[in-house]
Amino acid sequence: MAGTSSGIVAGLTAAAVGTVGFLAYQASANVPPGLGGKSGASASPSAVVSRAPRDRGHPGALPTGSGKGERVVYSVDDDRVWLVDDHNRVQRGFGVRPGSVDPPVGLYWVTSRSHTATGTDGVPVEHVVRFTSVDGVAIGFSAAVGAGADTTMDVKTGGIRERREDGDAMWRFATIGVPVVVIR
């Protein structure tokens, strides 16, 4: 009887591992058609949780373990963004100023865009590229138009602010469905 029980457990374990592998494969597949993403846009979920060391000698270098293919990479610890083409070449890298609410580390997709809007801090912004929300606060990239207001700590903001020229580049690059990889 013991041999039969261990065989059943081994079979169930193998089935569970196969199911998890299949789900991981599906999660790394192309952007769902309903999002209207670019064909072939994908990123590896396993790369998102990678904590491979970065080359601190080159702060502009794309961190290893940040995925593959076309994507936006955002480091919450370094306050830096990289726009990466489908050949894993950095098209542009730049520093940003985050809001008071950070997105969790993970894999997201650009879900909405607005040419102009007003940030939760009352500052007019342009080229808003949103990819998630945290506790009801929209998280996305944007560029302030004109002089920015002083943000009070009482206001929860999810705007990751860019310089206007970086915002223009983000707007051209990050269309609906493009993956956004958030790393530490």
UniProtKB/TrEMBL annotation:
Residues 36-70 are annotated as: Disordered. Residues 40-51 have a biased composition (Low complexity). This is Secreted protein.
